[in-house]
Amino acid sequence: MNLINNKIAIIGLGYVGLPLAVEFGKKYQVIGFDINEARVNELRIGTDRTLEVSDDELAESDLVFSHTVESLKSANIYIVTVPTPINEHKQPDLTPLIKASEMLGKVIGKGDIIIYESTVYPGATEEDCIPMVEKTSGLKFNKDFFAGYSPERINPGDKEHRVTNILKVTSGSTPEIAETVDQLYKSIIIAGTHKASSIKVAEAAKVIENTQRDVNIALINELSIIFNKLDIDTLEVLEAAGTKWNFLPFRPGLVGGHCIGVDPYYLTHKAQTVGYHPEMILAGRRLNDGMGAYVVSQLIKRMLKNKIQVEGANVLVMGLTFKENCPDLRNTKVTDIISELKEYNIKVDITDPWCSNEQAQHEYGLSLEEGTANKYDAIILAVAHDQFKEMGVDNIRKLGKKNHVLYDLKYILPKNSVDMRL
Fold first, then answer.
1. Distance of CA 374 to the CA centre of its chain
2. Which of 8, 190, 193, 353 is the most buried (most CB within 10 A)?
């Protein structure tokens, strides 16, 4: 296949799809497709609200944005970058992926390739997605059309590790297609590619990347609970242990976002379908999912120790996004802290310079505040935004009453300047 003559359609223009579309658009004709018409319109005028791509980068790329299915018919390579969330029962929700596959079945032609990037469990591409394409297209897999899987490795808010300088895993449904997919990505990925032996291997590689991180963070969270009971500072312990060359530098904290707090459930779901109950992975998930409640329980104990009335108290939560210096609110675990505080009839104000009040209202029904001087009985530093670091302890303390508790979850401030650290 002559790569230069390809026309690529990127399905889904979020944190993963848009940066990929921009890079491909520097070398190929690219259609950026999203079902969200408002998202398409803002990109057409050259603005990305996720802040992953600059206005200049958008302008430099040969990209056409569309929300109409008809526009996809001119493409011959389709790359799917839609979300893969979990439902309220912590089970994989493949609805966006299945709908995208069904839609592509209506436009795909003979010889075309569909490449999936969305994180899934091993087998999902060939067992769940491809049958839907076959059903709606009437075409035969690996005869009339082909597939690939190249898991996304986007790190939202990270301006150092970007699409082109993160090594990319690739795979294809036949050896020839695997090579085509590999060469396609190799044409834009400076860091190079790793061609997996099968789509299932590539799917499994992706899902364990974040499962590994989740389990490691769970261990550190459990250690922080133990060290708290032993009256030992967790960060000091981690820094001391970190002087050994092979000690892994994880930190305790909330585990949210669209990857680490979600992906392990895809793997555990698949494991259970083949008769294996994954003990360690699910134990890690339970521990990490319980950290919001643990944080609040510790805060309440400290407030009572300081003789601060808990019911009706005013608490400021600094930060709502799932990570620092990023506007992404998906699956943020700061909301667990907020919900738990409200269980005690505590009045909660939230401030975050990285997301808008409209976003907070739309996603969680929450309102943002600026923070008021001398108002708060407790302040929780929940996200390590640069703006909070720049404020310094004195300006943060000014927001609290004379008798208040300052709880630093992210080790933003010096140990001796705060009342509590995780």
1. 35
2. 8
Cβ contacts of residue 86 below 8 Å, gap of 6+?
Answer: 92, 93, 262, 265, 266
Q: What is the pLDDT of residues 196-210, one digit of tens each?
A: 999 999 999 999 999
Given the residues 129, 259, 326, 355, select the one marked as catalytic.
Answer: 259
419 contacts 302 by C-beta, under 8 angstroms: yes
Structure tokens belonging to residue 214 = 């989740």
Residues forming a β-bridge with 148:
115, 172
Active site includes 326?
Answer: no
From the number of C-beta atoms within 10 Å of its C-beta (0-12, 13-18, 19+), residue 296 rates as: buried
Q: Which residues contact 5 (CB under 8 A, 6 or more apart)?
A: none
Count CA atoms closer than 13 A to 321's CA, side-chain side: 20
- For residue 42 the two structure tokens come to 């803002």
CA 236 to CA 411: how far, in whole Å? Answer: 11
Write the pLDDT tens digit of every residue in 25-50.
Answer: 999 999 999 999 999 999 998 888 88
How far lies 232's CA from each of 178, 226, 299, 407, 411, in Å? 52, 9, 17, 16, 15
- Under DSSP, the state recorded for 163 is G
CA dist., res. 255 & res. 336, Å (int):
11
Predicted confidence (pLDDT) per residue in 157-197, tens digit: 767 777 889 999 999 999 999 999 999 999 999 999 999 99
Rounded to whole angstroms, the Cα distance separating 86 from 295 reads: 24
CA distances from 33 to 26, 184, 187, 298, 318 (A): 17, 19, 22, 46, 35
